[in-house]
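Tokens in:
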């Protein structure tokens, strides 16, 4: 009986190693330890978000969402770039500067 449990434990450990990579664990730990960044709220690319104070609020919200997602994910941080689209929620796809804002936000998250 004990041997069966030991065999099962080894099988589960092998499966876990396939699911969880060391890089993903390190990235999650690093993201959890990161301090809130100084976001470029006065960057002209973020003008569609409103005044710099409003842009700062939205960018920090995006950063917090990114941080939580990286902490909870098995995927590398670069896979979370899709989150920038939350900035454009409720914004018309034809809004002037929208695409530039999304691209700039993607670059900010990559940093």
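Residues out:
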């Amino acid at each position: 009986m004990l041997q069966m449990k030991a065999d099962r434990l080894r099988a589960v450990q092998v499966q876990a190693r396939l699911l969880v990579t060391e890089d993903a664990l390190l990235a999650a730990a690093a993201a959890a330890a990161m301090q809130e960044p100084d976001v470029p709220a006065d960057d002209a690319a973020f003008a569609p978000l409103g005044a710099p104070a409003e842009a700062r609020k939205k960018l920090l919200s995006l950063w917090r969402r990114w941080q939580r997602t990286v902490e909870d994910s098995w995927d590398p941080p670069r896979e979370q770039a899709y989150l920038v689209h939350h900035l454009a929620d409720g914004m018309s796809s034809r809004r002037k500067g929208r695409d530039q804002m999304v691209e700039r936000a993607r670059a900010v998250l990559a940093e």
